[in-house]
Amino acid sequence: MSAELSRVKIGLALVLLGLFLNVSLGVTFGVNEDAYKDFIAEGIEAHPAVHDEKSQDKIWRYAQRAHFHAGGVSTFCLALIILVMFSKLTPGMKNAASILLGLGSFYPLAWLSMFFLSPSLGRDAAHEHILTETFTYIGVGGILLGSIILVGNLFFGLFGETADA
Prior knowledge:
Blueprint: H1 2-7, H2 9-46, H3 55-86, H4 91-102, H5 107-121, H6 123-128, H7 130-156
């Protein structure tokens, strides 16, 4: 068991960081939601040209989506990493698949970056910002590639240990 666990440790660490982000956001929302809303209001007041009447609610929704996605995506990726751990993938492919799936925890950071960037740049500019797009591509790309490796192994016997190994 410890050998199998050691092959997926990096992916597990990334997923756990995503889960910690989820919990941290939830706790800080509960403790001081007004700090988030004040941050948004101050940004809108300082940069009114890039905002409309929907900005306050939509930007607050970005923070909520970061929280929701951190919990959902990280839990989904954790389940897939557990499948990787017990699959017939080669040790190197288990490591690669778990890291790729762990990178899925970067996707919620796209929503968080949009939350932090939107008050000063506007919603459209924050959505298209290189930081937001990088987090999106790393997160979604990691989940897709890791899932392809796992599905390839589980359903088609690809990337697995050979019979003479």
